[in-house]
Amino acid sequence: MARIRFTTLRDLYEAFASAQADIKVEASDEAPLRVMRMLVGAGSLYQAAAMCAYLLPRREAVWWACETVRSLVGLPFPAEEENLQAAENWVREPEDALRRVALELGMRSDQSSPATWAALAAGWSGGNIGLDGAQVPALPFQTAKAVYSAVMIGVSRVVPADQTGRLRVCIDRGIRLVGDDRD
Description:
Blueprint: H1 9-15, H2 19-23, H3 32-41, H4 45-55, H5 58-73, H6 78-92, H7 96-108, H8 114-123, H9 142-156, H10 160-178
Helix pairs in contact: 3-4, 3-10, 4-5, 4-9, 4-10, 5-6, 5-8, 5-9, 5-10, 6-7, 6-8, 7-8, 8-9
């Protein structure tokens, strides 16, 4: 279980300037987990998924993305499996060399694949994200954006009639990763 990193939704937005544009909820002093549960209850699952991507610490967010992609996509194509494995390897052992493998795979893979975005989420989790010797620092929001992209692309592969139910199951998993009942 992840630790709660933000006391209020406002704290989350202050940490990640891009979060409010993705979550689409006004800043408030509400506990983020409570807001996420309210979004789920209201059927605003895309907003809840965005909140989960920002609320989870980077490793847990990448793990959630991989689990969600596997749950939504089923059997991935070989290239997708390679991307998911690279991201999962980094989650299990968050060393820079494994992060770089995920980054390089993600950068050269099909951008329409949810597994590519899971690999990029791991690759963009910190350190230098420049290729070919360029020095480019990872930005704080990049992992969350990539996680959210992985989830949304994964959902798009599900038959429309099943999308809501399957995404809700994935978000419930994310809530359990985030959660504690102090909200």
